[in-house]
Amino acid sequence: MALKSTIYKATLALADMDRPLYADHSLTLALHPSETEERLMVRLLAFALQAGAGDSADNLQFTRGLSDSDEPALWQRDLDGRLRHWIEIGQTDERRLAKACGRADRVTLYAYGNSVPIWWAALQGKITRLRNLHIWQLPAAQTQELATLAARSMQLQVTVQDGHVWVGNAHTSVELSPQRLWPTE
Question: Which of 115, 122, 120, 118 is nearest to 135 (CA)?
């Protein structure tokens, strides 16, 4: 018998001073049986960092992700169906990134985990031609701490200012410092 996904509900109060954007989002996320709560929370963080005002033109959506190898963790489509933004989570190989860059106007990858420096050293020279690719590293200790906020029903406040992100609930807060890996500027 196949294991079923676990459903998580999240209410995000987003205050992004870097963009300036203030919005509330009610989200339903499915935790795949092979997925960790750390990955689930990184997906939620990616949503917060890429979401717009929440209007119909924004259209940022969670996909089937791990259940479908042809889909990213999140994507944004135009109202006519054109793929505007492909958002990956984890340590993806260059073939998948190249395929995503060919399909979408913009590709963003949030890499996390202790092995990111090793993965990045192997990948860095292979992606130079991918002009619409953006890669961010989320420090492992910070994403592990973020995972402690996971609950089946979450009310989270997300604040972004000067490149730093604070995610918190009524009891605790976690600070994250995403680091740009690509493109280098």
Answer: 120
